[in-house]
Amino acid sequence: MPYHKLLQRQIKKIADSSILGNRDIFNLLQVIDASYNSFEKDKALSTHAFELSELEYQEINEKLKQEIDEKKHSIDKLKEAIKSIEIDENVVIHDTGDNLPDIVAYLEKQISKRKAAEIDLVNAKVEAEVANNAKSEFLSIMSHEIRTPLHVLIGMGHLLIKDNPRPDQVQNLKVLRTASDNLLVIINDILDFNKIEAGKIDLEEIDFNIKNLVSDIKLANSVRAQERNTEIKLMLDNDLPDAVIGDTTRIGQILTNLVSNAIKFTKNGIIRIEVNVEKEQGDMVDIRFSVKDTGVGIAKENLEKIFHSFTQASSSITRQYGGTGLGLAITRKLLKLMKSDIVVESEQGQGSTFYFMLKFKKGVAVFSEKKVAIGDYDLAGCKILLVEDTAFNVLYATQLLGRWQASVDVAENGLEAIDKARVNEYDIILMDLQMPLMDGYTATREIRVFNKTVPIIALTASASNDVKERSLEHGMNDYITKPFYPDDFYQRIKKYVSI
C-alpha cells in the first residue's frame, strides 16, 4: 500500500521485503504514516491561518493609515480655519505636527471670550433699552412742557388776527403765526422720528376719500403759498375710487411734508399736486401721488442725501430756509412701513418732483359732513364743561369758545369736574388729562358711572400713542392734541354736538 511520500522514501532506502512482511513492522509503518499525514494537515491549516492573519493585519493597517490621514487632513483644515480669524498672540498654532492640545487651548479661550462677549451684549442691550426708555420719557415730558405754552401762542395769535388788528400789526401777527407753526412742525417731526425709530408707529386701516384728503391739504397750505406768491394747482384723476382703505393721517402727513417743502423752496412759482390711478384690478388699485414745484431744485449729488436723518442738501439750506432735516426722512420711513418708497427727480434751478406709489384696497364710500365756513362758526346754545388747570389755556379756550357763542363752565381738576357734571347737563366735556387732585382719566371713569352718553373729548399736550389708547379705554369719545388749530377744534366739537 502507498505511504506518505517521505516515509516511502525511507522504506526504499533501509527496508527489504522480508521486513515489510512482518506484521508488527506493518502496524508500525501504519502509525508512522498516519503521523506524517496528520502533520501535513496541521501544517496546511497553520499556513492557511497565518495567511488569513496577514491579510487581516494588512486591512487593519490600511484602515488605520486612512484614519490617520483623515485626522491629519481635518487638523490641517482646522488650522486653516483658525488662521483665518484673529488669533490671540499668546496662542501658537504650528504648521506641522498634531497640535491638538494647542488647538483645544485656543478654542477654549475663544469660547470663553464669546461667552463673555454675549454677556456684554446682553448687558449693553439692557442698558440701551433703559437709555431709550429714558429718552422717550424725556421727549414725552419735553413735548408736553413745550406744547402747553405753544398751544396758547398759536391760539392767541389766531385770536389777534381775527380781532381786526391795525394794518401795521397784521404783518407782525403773520410772522408770529408762521414762527409758531414752524415750531410746531419741528416738535412733531422730532416726536414722530422718535416713534418710528422705537417701532411705535401703528398704521390704521380706515375708509377715506383721497380726493377730499388731498383737497384739504391744498386748502391748508394755500395761505403759506400765497405769502410766497406761489400758486398750488391740484390735478385729480377722474378714475379715483370714492373710498380706499388706509391710514389717512399718515398719508396726509406725507403729502403735507412734500407740499410744505415745495412751498419753502418755491417763490413766485407753481406747485402741482397730482393723484392718478396707475393700475386697477378687482378691488385693488395702485395710485401715484406726486408733488412738483418750480423752486430752487436740488443738485444731482445731493438727491439721496436729503432723505438722511437731520440732513439737508447743504448747510446753506439750513441757514436760508430752516428746518430740522427730518421731514423727508420721516416721509421715507412712513412709506417703507406702507411697503413703498419716495422718488425724487430734480435739477438745480429747475424745480423738483417727488412721487410715490401706494396700493389700496377699495373701501366703502365716505360722505363727510360739509365743513362750516370760518365766518359761520356758531355754537350758540351749546353748554360746555372745560376741565383745565392751566390759567392761560383756560383764557384761550374760553375766549375762543365765547367767540362762537358757547356757554362755558370751567373746572380746575377732576374732582371739581365730577361735581359739576353731576348737577349740570352739558352738551360736551373737554377734559385735560394731567391735573392736580384727580387726573382726567379717573374723572372720566367716575363720570361714566352716572352719565354714559355725554361726549368727552381729551385735551392733552402729550402726543404719544398710549395716551390716545388710554383715553378711549377710560371712556372718552375722542382725543385732541394741543396745540390745535381753531378750525380743527371747532369741527371736532361739531362732530359730537347737534344744536
Which key terms come to mind for this protein?
single chain, about 500 residues, alpha/beta, Helix Hairpins, Heat Shock Protein 90, 4 domains, seven-stranded mixed sheet, five-stranded parallel sheet, 14 helices, 12 strands, about 55% helix, elongated
Structure description:
The protein has four domains: 5-71; 116-194, Helix Hairpins (Orthogonal Bundle); 204-362, Heat Shock Protein 90, CATH 3.30.565; 377-496, Rossmann fold. The chain is 55% helix and 15% strand. Helix 10 links the parallel strand 8 and strand 9. The longest helix is centred in the first third of the chain and has 63 residues, at 100-162. Strands 1, 2, 3, 4, 5, 6 and 7 form a seven-stranded mixed sheet that branches. A five-stranded parallel sheet has the order 9-8-10-11-12, sandwiched between helices. The protein has helices spanning 5-14, 17-20, 23-83, 100-162, 167-197, 210-227, 248-264, 315-321, 327-337, 391-403, 414-423, 440-450, 465-473, 486-496, and strands at 206-208, 231-236, 244-246, 270-281, 284-293, 342-346, 352-362, 383-387, 407-411, 428-432, 456-460, 478-481. With 499 residues, it is an alpha/beta fold.
